[in-house]
């Protein structure tokens, strides 16, 4: 029996987004692309899976086997002018941060939180049909909230775009007839020969007291790169 | 999830509702233009405070560093001696959020802790029986939140004991102006009343920054989550309706208190769209203002029109379905609340 593959398309659109790669300290930055852990988090929240539960372990084991493609979709304004994506830095106070030594700092600290503004992304998750069908259903009617990296970053369009049998059909939902090479995009790759960047954002556990991530190998193509 | 969305248009002239580390009103770029911004946490605090005034019986959660004194008092009431109670309360504060070693005059915790009176009483009673801080804290169950709807709505983060974390049932986005905003600088001088008449000049001069903006504000509430066992499942549907009614009223009316004496930004919204949907997730209508509003006739009326257009476009494009759509000023506040809360279960 062959295991069928599907392609789940997601749309991450909203005026403020924040995709943290290193948010333990008092500069909580955002990356320029959604992280795989954030996408896993959106799906797990939609399914109503608690942090650190055994369901989470099962879910993340399946999620780790997926391949994702993230596409930066430029926002256009009046007269087709492309809006530049910017980083916004918000000043905020926070408690219980982590020190570099790993211990909890219980004093109130000033933090700077970054957000992306005027950004929009398309995401395609490639995985087994059975697993993605379950995620797709949950995204359409999530148990918990759906937000773009931080709870205050509410989407401005439904996050679920569609579940397709082919990658080209999923792409069609996100970028229409425009070729993928016209966009800056980031893809999971299998080995070093296919991509040399690695990101520490493959979630192993979201448990509050024991968050774990493993590295993920990716390749980022700039818009215009054809291979 | 079954949820409620509030989309609010509100004009706030000459104010500095929320400022950054340089004392400038916060801003953000959206649609390529700078907007006035009020962070979600700033507006939420004003809403929490107002909710306490509207329904003091349901919103009794307190954020405090001073929980030692009430804890010790509750332990004495449960039969412990004054010394036992004071030491016991200290061990609990230490187990929850650590005692601040620098506090001299009275025992303080290192950070604020969000606690409901029922939780406090339960910990104190358990401690009196068990004489063990960890066991006493384990005695806190979701049903002890029945007098603290604020904790269920706005959430609680606890670093030391994750079992006490409560996920917020509400979601707020940062309020953004619907139009381009440049911060302005107010130069002011103050007169010295005791200055002799023959001397001229101001007693002091300084500047402060402000702006004027018509904001789009957005809040949502996960009604399923609010009614689950970890939140307010212990309440009756009628009590939960009252919680939601209070949430709506406070979200609509509350304004951050910053510079309320010098600038008074205390206005009321000119338009509120309330939506209840059985399925899906909250979606804000901010894209109505992606092209910043430009008009010679003021911003509010045009913003309302654009908001309504965006909502019908979203419904049409994505097939969104609502079980309730109500708008102020078409209906009055109390009818608005009645219509929306009739969908609370």
Structure class of chain B: alpha+beta
Distance between the termini of chain B: 12 Å
Low-pLDDT stretches of chain B? none
Number of strands of chain A: 15
Largest sheet of chain B: 9 strands, antiparallel
Shape summary of chain B: flat
Largest Cβ-defined interface: A-B, 47 and 47 residues
What is the overall pLDDT average of chain A? Answer: 89
Which segments of chain A are poorly predicted (pLDDT under 50) over 5 or more consecutive residues? none
Number of domains of chain A: 1
Portion in helices of chain A: 10-25%
Distance between the termini of chain A: 33 Å
How many separate structural domains of chain B?
2
With helices defined by DSSP (H or I, 4 residues minimum), what is the helix count of chain B? 10
Large-scale geometry of chain A: globular
From the alpha-carbon coordinates, what is the Rg of chain B to the nearest angstrom? 24 Å
Proportion of strand residues of chain A: 35-45%
InterPro entries (chain B): CRISPR-assoc_prot_CT1975 (IPR010148)
Protein name (chain B): CRISPR system Cascade subunit CasC
Pfam families (chain B): Cas_CT1975
Organism (chain B): Desulfurispira natronophila
């Amino acid at each position: 029996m062959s295991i069928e593959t599907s392609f789940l398309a997601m749309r991450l659109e909203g005026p403020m987004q924040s995709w943290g790669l290193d948010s333990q300290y008092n500069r909580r930055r955002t990356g320029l692309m959604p992280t795989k852990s954030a996408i896993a988090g959106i799906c797990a929240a939609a399914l109503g899976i608690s942090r650190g539960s055994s369901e989470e372990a099962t879910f993340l084991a399946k999620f780790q086997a997926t391949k994702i493609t993230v596409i930066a979709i430029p926002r256009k304004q009046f007269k087709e002018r492309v809006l530049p994506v910017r980083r916004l830095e918000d000043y905020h106070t926070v408690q219980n941060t982590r020190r570099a030594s790993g211990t909890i700092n219980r004093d109130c600290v000033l933090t700077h939180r970054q957000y992306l503004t005027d950004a929009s992304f398309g995401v395609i998750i490639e995985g087994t049909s059975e697993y993605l069908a379950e995620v797709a259903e949950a995204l359409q009617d999530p148990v918990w909230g759906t937000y773009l990296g931080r709870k205050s970053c509410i989407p401005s369009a439904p996050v679920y775009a569609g579940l397709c049998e082919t990658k080209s059909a999923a792409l069609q939902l996100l970028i229409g007839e425009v070729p993928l090479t016209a966009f800056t995009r980031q893809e999971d790759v299998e080995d070093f020969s296919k991509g040399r960047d690695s990101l520490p954002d493959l979630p192993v556990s979201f448990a509050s007291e024991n968050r774990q991530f493993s590295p993920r190998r990716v390749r980022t193509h700039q818009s215009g790169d054809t291979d | 999830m079954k949820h409620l969305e509030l989309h609010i248009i509100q004009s706030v002239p000459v104010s500095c509702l929320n400022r950054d580390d340089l004392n400038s009103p916060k801003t953000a770029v959206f649609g390529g233009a700078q907007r006035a911004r009020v962070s979600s946490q700033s507006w939420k605090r004003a809403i929490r405070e107002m909710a306490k005034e509207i329904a003091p019986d349901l919103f009794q959660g307190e954020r405090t560093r001073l929980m030692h004194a009430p804890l010790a008092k509750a332990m004495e009431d449960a039969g412990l001696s004054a010394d036992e109670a004071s030491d016991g309360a200290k061990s609990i504060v230490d187990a929850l959020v650590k005692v601040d070693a620098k506090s001299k005059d009275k025992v303080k915790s290192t950070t604020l802790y969000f606690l409901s009176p029922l939780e406090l009483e339960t910990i104190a009673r358990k401690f009196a029986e068990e004489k063990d801080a960890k066991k006493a804290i384990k005695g806190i169950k979701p049903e002890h939140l029945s007098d603290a709807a604020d904790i269920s709505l706005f959430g609680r983060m606890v670093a030391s004991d994750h079992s006490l974390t409560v996920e917020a049932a509400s979601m707020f986005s940062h309020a953004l102006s619907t139009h381009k905003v440049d911060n302005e600088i107010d130069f002011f001088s103050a007169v010295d009343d005791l200055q002799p008449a023959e001397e001229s000049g101001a007693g002091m001069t300084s500047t402060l920054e402000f702006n004027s903006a018509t904001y789009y504000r957005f809040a949502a509430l996960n009604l399923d989550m609010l009614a689950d066992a970890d939140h307010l499942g212990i309440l009756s549907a009628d009590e939960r309706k009252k919680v939601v009614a209070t949430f709506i009223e406070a979200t609509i009316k509350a304004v951050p208190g910053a510079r309320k004496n010098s600038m008074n930004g205390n206005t009321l919204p000119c338009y509120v769209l309330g939506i209840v949907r059985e399925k899906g997730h909250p979606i804000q209508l901010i894209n109505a203002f992606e092209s910043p509003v430009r008009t010679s006739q003021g911003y509010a009326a045009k913003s309302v029109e654009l908001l309504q257009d965006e909502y019908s476009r979203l419904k049409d494009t994505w097939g969104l379905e609502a079980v309730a759509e109500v708008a102020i000023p078409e209906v009055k506040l109390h009818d608005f609340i009645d219509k929306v809360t009739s969908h609370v279960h």
